[in-house]
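Give me the 3D structure for GTPase Era.
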Amino acid sequence: MTENFKSGFVTIVGRPNVGKSTFMNRVIGEKIAIMSDKPQTTRNKIQGVMTDKESQIIFIDTPGIHKPKHKLGDFMVNVAENTLNEVDAVLFMINAEEGYGRGDQFILERLKRVDQPIFLIINKIDQVHPDQLLPLIDQYKEKMEFEEIIPISALEGNNVNHLLDVLKKHLPEGPQFYPEDQITDHPERFVISEFIREKVLHLTREEIPHSVAVVIEGIEPRDEHNKVHIQAAIVVERKSQKGIIIGKQGSMLKEIGKRARKDIESLLGSKVYLELWVKVQKDWRNKQIQLSDFGYRE
Ligand code: GDP
Ligand code: K
Ligand code: MG
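Predicted structure for GTPase Era (298 residues):
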């Protein structure tokens, strides 16, 4: 560790789908947070740890802040808001393709009560003409004072290193909180369940993505074929949804398993035998006890 080592916690907030999880995976250099084009993909607070010679930044990827419609939604918004006053900096991320909207107003009202430095991160600049950025910047500047405004593309990596340099400058001197090879505070079991849920999000539409939870029921060490054996249940809210997840002659479930297995194998660095099944738990998103069972507890 060098002298003047800097460290701190940085939370990423913003409307659903602006690219918070994509950004976090890019800076961590490995996939730990699942991503999709569906809002409310991220349900928990996920910490990603970035360590180099002179600094350690712990990024906190949060569920998008939105007006909640059920108990799971309440939980998700609380998670995002509770992090705001505990961190060294806040990244407020917006999508360059979209103008200022009601969703941002909802978030800005909350950010105004925060004392920590707030950076406006304009993501997805790969999607717009540079001329479009200035009016957008002016619009947001009127609403609130930002420490700095930084346009990036989380997907392509543009300007991400610049953002990291700026953050390092702002962070206080401090200890290395996590070992340098640790990239997340979540156990493998959680990341595995998320990889499975991500494939369901990618392969289904409408209400299904929001109705799904994944529970890992068993992980057994390598067998004689050197494979890790994982058993997981995909939980849905209705019988009709179960049918969709299973698909014709099991084809959908098979595809979910095939894609999830690839991600899990690269996470574990080992061959995996993944056993999946589907369970119905009526209205689980509104039942506190179920939310806790599925890992959505504060
Ligand atoms: P989150 O809900 O804010 O965590 O957003 P995600 O990280 O899940 O991303 C939402 C969608 O936006 C995904 O389809 C991403 O591939 C896409 N996305 C994220 N960052 C960028 C970017 O910089 N450029 C483009 N074109 N797409 C992006
Ligand atoms: K998303
Ligand atoms: Mg996300």
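Residues 16-17, 36, 38-39, 41 surround potassium ion (ligand 2) (CB under 6 Å). Let me know if you want a second pass.
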